[in-house]
Amino acid sequence: MAVFANRRLWIAVLAALALAFPLLVTNSYYLHMMTISFIWMIAVYGLNLFAGYTGYLSLAHAGFFAIGAYALGILTVKAGVPFWLAFVLACLFTTLLGAVIGLVALRTKEHFFAIYTLCVGYIIYLIIDKWDSLTGGVRGFIGIPAPADIGPLSFQTPVAQYYLVLCFLVAVIFTMYRLVYSLTGRTYIAIRNSEELALTLGISTMKNKLASFVLSVFFTSLAGALYASFIRFLGPDIAYVSVMFDFLTYLLVGGIGTLAGPVVGTLLVTFLSQQLQFLQDYRMLIFGPVLTLLIIFYPHGIAGGIIRLKAKRAVFSWKQHKRPRNWPPPPAKSGANDM
Question: In Å, what is the CA distance from 247 to each residue of 59, 104, 250, 276?
Protein backbone atom coordinates (compact mmCIF):
# COMPACT_ATOMS: atom_id res chain seq x y z
CA MET A 1 0.00 0.00 0.00
CA ALA A 2 2.89 2.34 0.84
CA VAL A 3 4.51 1.65 -2.52
CA PHE A 4 1.28 2.47 -4.32
CA ALA A 5 0.91 5.69 -2.32
CA ASN A 6 4.48 6.70 -3.11
CA ARG A 7 3.88 6.02 -6.79
CA ARG A 8 0.79 8.21 -6.79
CA LEU A 9 2.71 10.92 -4.94
CA TRP A 10 5.52 10.90 -7.52
CA ILE A 11 3.03 11.03 -10.38
CA ALA A 12 1.29 14.00 -8.78
CA VAL A 13 4.60 15.83 -8.26
CA LEU A 14 5.73 15.23 -11.84
CA ALA A 15 2.35 16.31 -13.21
CA ALA A 16 2.49 19.50 -11.16
CA LEU A 17 6.02 20.25 -12.36
CA ALA A 18 5.04 19.67 -15.98
CA LEU A 19 2.04 21.99 -15.66
CA ALA A 20 4.07 24.69 -13.90
CA PHE A 21 7.16 24.44 -16.12
CA PRO A 22 6.28 27.37 -18.45
CA LEU A 23 5.65 29.52 -15.36
CA LEU A 24 8.86 28.51 -13.59
CA VAL A 25 11.15 28.73 -16.64
CA THR A 26 10.86 31.90 -18.68
CA ASN A 27 13.64 31.00 -21.13
CA SER A 28 11.99 30.21 -24.48
CA TYR A 29 14.83 27.87 -25.47
CA TYR A 30 14.19 25.54 -22.53
CA LEU A 31 10.47 25.61 -23.27
CA HIS A 32 11.23 24.65 -26.87
CA MET A 33 13.50 21.78 -25.78
CA MET A 34 10.95 20.46 -23.30
CA THR A 35 8.22 20.45 -25.97
CA ILE A 36 10.51 18.58 -28.35
CA SER A 37 11.35 16.12 -25.56
CA PHE A 38 7.64 15.42 -25.05
CA ILE A 39 7.30 14.67 -28.77
CA TRP A 40 10.27 12.28 -28.61
CA MET A 41 8.69 10.58 -25.59
CA ILE A 42 5.53 9.80 -27.55
CA ALA A 43 7.61 8.21 -30.32
CA VAL A 44 9.66 6.23 -27.77
CA TYR A 45 6.47 4.96 -26.12
CA GLY A 46 5.48 3.56 -29.50
CA LEU A 47 8.82 1.80 -29.80
CA ASN A 48 8.61 0.61 -26.19
CA LEU A 49 5.23 -1.02 -26.74
CA PHE A 50 6.55 -3.24 -29.48
CA ALA A 51 10.17 -3.78 -28.41
CA GLY A 52 9.77 -3.64 -24.63
CA TYR A 53 6.49 -5.48 -24.14
CA THR A 54 6.20 -7.68 -27.23
CA GLY A 55 9.90 -8.46 -27.64
CA TYR A 56 10.44 -7.48 -31.29
CA LEU A 57 12.93 -4.74 -32.18
CA SER A 58 11.67 -2.56 -35.01
CA LEU A 59 14.24 -0.28 -36.67
CA ALA A 60 11.74 1.34 -39.03
CA HIS A 61 10.03 3.62 -36.52
CA ALA A 62 12.05 6.68 -37.52
CA GLY A 63 10.63 6.16 -41.02
CA PHE A 64 7.07 6.00 -39.66
CA PHE A 65 7.79 9.13 -37.63
CA ALA A 66 8.85 10.89 -40.83
CA ILE A 67 5.82 9.62 -42.77
CA GLY A 68 3.46 11.02 -40.14
CA ALA A 69 5.26 14.37 -40.29
CA TYR A 70 5.40 14.58 -44.10
CA ALA A 71 1.82 13.36 -44.51
CA LEU A 72 0.60 16.24 -42.35
CA GLY A 73 2.74 18.71 -44.27
CA ILE A 74 1.61 17.50 -47.71
CA LEU A 75 -2.07 17.40 -46.75
CA THR A 76 -2.09 20.88 -45.25
CA VAL A 77 0.25 22.71 -47.66
CA LYS A 78 -0.32 21.01 -51.01
CA ALA A 79 -3.83 19.57 -50.64
CA GLY A 80 -5.26 22.39 -48.55
CA VAL A 81 -6.89 20.04 -46.04
CA PRO A 82 -7.91 21.66 -42.70
CA PHE A 83 -5.29 21.10 -40.04
CA TRP A 84 -7.05 18.74 -37.63
CA LEU A 85 -8.55 16.66 -40.41
CA ALA A 86 -5.09 16.41 -41.98
CA PHE A 87 -3.68 15.50 -38.56
CA VAL A 88 -6.07 12.56 -38.21
CA LEU A 89 -5.59 11.46 -41.84
CA ALA A 90 -1.79 11.57 -41.48
CA CYS A 91 -1.90 9.26 -38.46
CA LEU A 92 -4.39 6.90 -40.11
CA PHE A 93 -2.40 6.74 -43.35
CA THR A 94 0.83 5.96 -41.52
CA THR A 95 -0.90 3.35 -39.37
CA LEU A 96 -2.42 1.66 -42.42
CA LEU A 97 0.97 1.61 -44.13
CA GLY A 98 2.47 0.17 -40.94
CA ALA A 99 -0.14 -2.61 -40.96
CA VAL A 100 0.79 -3.58 -44.52
CA ILE A 101 4.50 -3.57 -43.72
CA GLY A 102 3.85 -5.49 -40.49
CA LEU A 103 2.01 -8.27 -42.29
CA VAL A 104 5.18 -8.97 -44.27
CA ALA A 105 7.80 -8.15 -41.64
CA LEU A 106 6.25 -10.28 -38.88
CA ARG A 107 6.78 -13.41 -40.95
CA THR A 108 10.38 -13.10 -39.82
CA LYS A 109 11.72 -13.35 -36.28
CA GLU A 110 14.48 -12.03 -34.03
CA HIS A 111 17.44 -10.44 -35.85
CA PHE A 112 15.90 -11.13 -39.26
CA PHE A 113 12.96 -8.92 -38.27
CA ALA A 114 15.32 -6.18 -37.09
CA ILE A 115 17.30 -6.29 -40.33
CA TYR A 116 14.13 -6.26 -42.44
CA THR A 117 12.70 -3.23 -40.62
CA LEU A 118 16.08 -1.48 -40.85
CA CYS A 119 15.92 -1.87 -44.63
CA VAL A 120 12.32 -0.60 -44.66
CA GLY A 121 13.35 2.46 -42.66
CA TYR A 122 16.19 3.21 -45.04
CA ILE A 123 13.90 2.83 -48.07
CA ILE A 124 11.52 5.36 -46.51
CA TYR A 125 14.45 7.74 -46.05
CA LEU A 126 15.49 7.34 -49.71
CA ILE A 127 11.93 7.98 -50.95
CA ILE A 128 11.69 11.18 -48.91
CA ASP A 129 15.15 12.29 -49.98
CA LYS A 130 14.74 11.62 -53.72
CA TRP A 131 11.07 12.45 -54.37
CA ASP A 132 11.64 16.19 -54.81
CA SER A 133 8.28 17.01 -56.35
CA LEU A 134 6.37 15.63 -53.35
CA THR A 135 8.64 16.04 -50.33
CA GLY A 136 11.01 18.78 -51.41
CA GLY A 137 13.98 16.41 -51.18
CA VAL A 138 17.13 17.83 -49.62
CA ARG A 139 15.68 21.37 -49.82
CA GLY A 140 13.15 20.42 -47.19
CA PHE A 141 9.44 21.00 -46.79
CA ILE A 142 8.35 24.41 -45.48
CA GLY A 143 5.16 26.31 -44.77
CA ILE A 144 3.50 23.77 -42.47
CA PRO A 145 0.84 25.58 -40.41
CA ALA A 146 0.69 25.63 -36.63
CA PRO A 147 -2.17 23.73 -34.96
CA ALA A 148 -5.50 25.35 -35.78
CA ASP A 149 -7.69 26.84 -33.09
CA ILE A 150 -10.34 24.70 -31.41
CA GLY A 151 -13.12 27.04 -30.43
CA PRO A 152 -11.68 29.54 -27.93
CA LEU A 153 -8.45 27.57 -27.61
CA SER A 154 -5.55 28.98 -29.64
CA PHE A 155 -2.26 27.16 -30.21
CA GLN A 156 -0.25 29.89 -31.89
CA THR A 157 2.10 30.60 -28.99
CA PRO A 158 4.94 28.34 -27.75
CA VAL A 159 3.30 27.98 -24.33
CA ALA A 160 0.00 26.87 -25.86
CA GLN A 161 1.81 24.36 -28.07
CA TYR A 162 3.69 23.07 -25.02
CA TYR A 163 0.42 22.31 -23.23
CA LEU A 164 -1.05 20.78 -26.40
CA VAL A 165 1.85 18.35 -26.75
CA LEU A 166 1.70 17.64 -22.99
CA CYS A 167 -1.97 16.67 -23.32
CA PHE A 168 -1.14 14.20 -26.10
CA LEU A 169 1.73 12.78 -24.02
CA VAL A 170 -0.53 12.26 -21.00
CA ALA A 171 -3.10 10.54 -23.22
CA VAL A 172 -0.43 8.20 -24.61
CA ILE A 173 0.90 7.37 -21.13
CA PHE A 174 -2.63 6.69 -19.85
CA THR A 175 -3.32 4.44 -22.85
CA MET A 176 -0.07 2.57 -22.30
CA TYR A 177 -0.87 2.10 -18.60
CA ARG A 178 -4.32 0.71 -19.27
CA LEU A 179 -2.98 -1.51 -22.05
CA VAL A 180 -0.02 -2.93 -20.12
CA TYR A 181 -2.15 -3.86 -17.11
CA SER A 182 -4.91 -5.40 -19.22
CA LEU A 183 -5.26 -8.94 -20.56
CA THR A 184 -3.96 -7.71 -23.92
CA GLY A 185 -0.82 -6.36 -22.30
CA ARG A 186 -0.27 -9.64 -20.46
CA THR A 187 -0.61 -11.39 -23.80
CA TYR A 188 2.12 -9.21 -25.30
CA ILE A 189 4.39 -9.95 -22.33
CA ALA A 190 3.71 -13.69 -22.71
CA ILE A 191 4.80 -13.46 -26.37
CA ARG A 192 7.93 -11.58 -25.31
CA ASN A 193 8.86 -14.16 -22.69
CA SER A 194 8.25 -17.22 -24.86
CA GLU A 195 6.42 -17.18 -28.15
CA GLU A 196 6.36 -20.99 -28.33
CA LEU A 197 4.78 -21.24 -24.88
CA ALA A 198 2.24 -18.59 -25.84
CA LEU A 199 1.27 -20.66 -28.87
CA THR A 200 0.74 -23.73 -26.71
CA LEU A 201 -1.58 -21.68 -24.49
CA GLY A 202 -3.77 -20.92 -27.50
CA ILE A 203 -2.62 -17.32 -28.03
CA SER A 204 -2.72 -16.11 -31.63
CA THR A 205 0.78 -14.70 -31.69
CA MET A 206 0.62 -13.32 -35.23
CA LYS A 207 -2.59 -11.43 -34.56
CA ASN A 208 -1.32 -9.97 -31.30
CA LYS A 209 2.09 -9.04 -32.70
CA LEU A 210 0.44 -7.26 -35.61
CA ALA A 211 -1.91 -5.38 -33.27
CA SER A 212 1.04 -4.31 -31.10
CA PHE A 213 3.04 -3.24 -34.15
CA VAL A 214 0.16 -1.22 -35.60
CA LEU A 215 -0.51 0.55 -32.31
CA SER A 216 3.18 1.35 -31.91
CA VAL A 217 3.24 2.79 -35.43
CA PHE A 218 0.22 4.93 -34.55
CA PHE A 219 1.99 6.42 -31.52
CA THR A 220 5.07 7.13 -33.61
CA SER A 221 3.07 8.74 -36.42
CA LEU A 222 1.27 10.87 -33.82
CA ALA A 223 4.66 12.11 -32.63
CA GLY A 224 5.70 12.83 -36.22
CA ALA A 225 2.56 14.87 -36.92
CA LEU A 226 3.10 16.88 -33.72
CA TYR A 227 6.73 17.43 -34.69
CA ALA A 228 5.73 18.80 -38.10
CA SER A 229 3.18 21.18 -36.60
CA PHE A 230 5.65 22.41 -33.98
CA ILE A 231 8.86 22.77 -36.04
CA ARG A 232 6.96 23.66 -39.28
CA PHE A 233 9.94 22.64 -41.40
CA LEU A 234 10.90 19.10 -42.41
CA GLY A 235 14.01 17.57 -43.91
CA PRO A 236 14.78 13.98 -44.90
CA ASP A 237 17.15 13.66 -41.93
CA ILE A 238 14.22 12.93 -39.59
CA ALA A 239 13.87 9.54 -41.32
CA TYR A 240 17.57 8.69 -41.13
CA VAL A 241 18.98 5.79 -39.13
CA SER A 242 20.56 8.15 -36.59
CA VAL A 243 17.09 9.25 -35.42
CA MET A 244 16.13 5.61 -34.93
CA PHE A 245 19.15 5.01 -32.76
CA ASP A 246 18.34 8.16 -30.78
CA PHE A 247 14.97 6.58 -29.98
CA LEU A 248 16.72 3.37 -28.93
CA THR A 249 19.14 5.31 -26.74
CA TYR A 250 16.30 7.06 -24.93
CA LEU A 251 14.57 3.73 -24.38
CA LEU A 252 17.63 1.77 -23.24
CA VAL A 253 18.81 4.45 -20.83
CA GLY A 254 15.36 4.95 -19.33
CA GLY A 255 14.41 1.29 -19.19
CA ILE A 256 12.99 -0.89 -21.91
CA GLY A 257 9.73 -2.58 -20.98
CA THR A 258 8.86 -0.02 -18.26
CA LEU A 259 6.24 2.69 -18.23
CA ALA A 260 8.58 5.36 -16.86
CA GLY A 261 11.52 4.44 -19.11
CA PRO A 262 10.71 6.69 -22.10
CA VAL A 263 10.22 9.72 -19.85
CA VAL A 264 13.36 9.16 -17.77
CA GLY A 265 15.60 8.26 -20.71
CA THR A 266 14.46 11.08 -22.98
CA LEU A 267 14.82 13.76 -20.32
CA LEU A 268 18.20 12.52 -19.11
CA VAL A 269 19.80 12.05 -22.53
CA THR A 270 18.40 15.33 -23.86
CA PHE A 271 19.64 17.21 -20.79
CA LEU A 272 23.13 15.68 -20.98
CA SER A 273 23.35 16.37 -24.71
CA GLN A 274 22.46 20.02 -24.17
CA GLN A 275 24.94 20.40 -21.31
CA LEU A 276 27.73 19.00 -23.51
CA GLN A 277 26.96 21.23 -26.50
CA PHE A 278 30.01 23.38 -25.78
CA LEU A 279 32.22 20.39 -26.65
CA GLN A 280 30.65 20.24 -30.14
CA ASP A 281 31.78 17.07 -31.93
CA TYR A 282 33.90 15.94 -28.96
CA ARG A 283 30.94 15.60 -26.62
CA MET A 284 30.45 11.98 -27.74
CA LEU A 285 33.86 11.17 -26.21
CA ILE A 286 32.21 11.78 -22.84
CA PHE A 287 28.63 10.85 -23.56
CA GLY A 288 29.53 7.58 -25.32
CA PRO A 289 31.48 5.97 -22.44
CA VAL A 290 28.91 7.18 -19.89
CA LEU A 291 26.14 5.58 -21.94
CA THR A 292 28.15 2.37 -22.31
CA LEU A 293 28.80 2.12 -18.57
CA LEU A 294 25.15 2.79 -17.84
CA ILE A 295 24.03 -0.01 -20.14
CA ILE A 296 26.65 -2.40 -18.67
CA PHE A 297 25.77 -1.79 -15.02
CA TYR A 298 22.07 -1.03 -15.59
CA PRO A 299 21.10 -3.32 -18.49
CA HIS A 300 17.43 -2.75 -17.70
CA GLY A 301 17.82 1.03 -17.71
CA ILE A 302 17.42 3.46 -14.87
CA ALA A 303 13.71 2.87 -14.31
CA GLY A 304 14.16 -0.90 -14.69
CA GLY A 305 17.07 -0.88 -12.25
CA ILE A 306 15.03 1.00 -9.65
CA ILE A 307 12.12 -1.40 -10.05
CA ARG A 308 14.38 -4.42 -9.56
CA LEU A 309 16.07 -2.82 -6.56
CA LYS A 310 12.69 -2.23 -4.93
CA ALA A 311 11.69 -5.82 -5.68
CA LYS A 312 14.87 -7.15 -4.03
CA ARG A 313 14.30 -4.96 -0.98
CA ALA A 314 10.70 -6.15 -0.76
CA VAL A 315 11.79 -9.81 -0.90
CA PHE A 316 14.47 -9.18 1.73
CA SER A 317 11.96 -7.41 3.98
CA TRP A 318 9.49 -10.25 3.53
CA LYS A 319 12.10 -12.83 4.50
CA GLN A 320 13.07 -10.81 7.56
CA HIS A 321 9.42 -10.51 8.57
CA LYS A 322 8.74 -14.23 8.16
CA ARG A 323 11.91 -15.31 9.96
CA PRO A 324 11.37 -16.32 13.63
CA ARG A 325 12.66 -13.88 16.22
CA ASN A 326 15.06 -16.41 17.75
CA TRP A 327 16.55 -17.28 14.32
CA PRO A 328 19.28 -18.47 13.99
CA PRO A 329 19.08 -20.65 17.11
CA PRO A 330 21.78 -20.08 19.74
CA PRO A 331 24.65 -22.57 19.74
CA ALA A 332 24.33 -25.47 22.15
CA LYS A 333 26.23 -25.06 25.41
CA SER A 334 29.10 -27.44 25.87
CA GLY A 335 29.12 -29.40 29.11
CA ALA A 336 30.76 -32.34 30.81
CA ASN A 337 28.56 -34.81 28.96
CA ASP A 338 29.97 -33.53 25.68
CA MET A 339 33.29 -35.04 26.56
Answer: 10, 23, 5, 19
What is the rounded CA–CA span in Å between residue 31 and residue 103?
40
Whether pTM exceeds 0.85: yes
Q: Is residue 337 part of a domain?
A: no
Phi/psi for 233 (5° steps) reads -150, 135
Do residues 161 and 35 touch, judged by C-beta distance below 8 A?
yes
Instruction: Examine residue 333 and state whether it is found in any structural domain, yes or no.
Output: no
CB atoms within 10 A of CB 56: 24
Extended strands (E) in the chain: 141-142, 233-234
| Three-class DSSP category at 283 | helix
- What confidence category does residue 216 fall into, taking pLDDT thresholds of 50, 70 and 90? very high
| Sign of the torsion angle spanned by Cα atoms 16, 160, 145, 32 | negative
Coil/strand/helix, residue 151: coil
Parent domain of 63 = 2-323
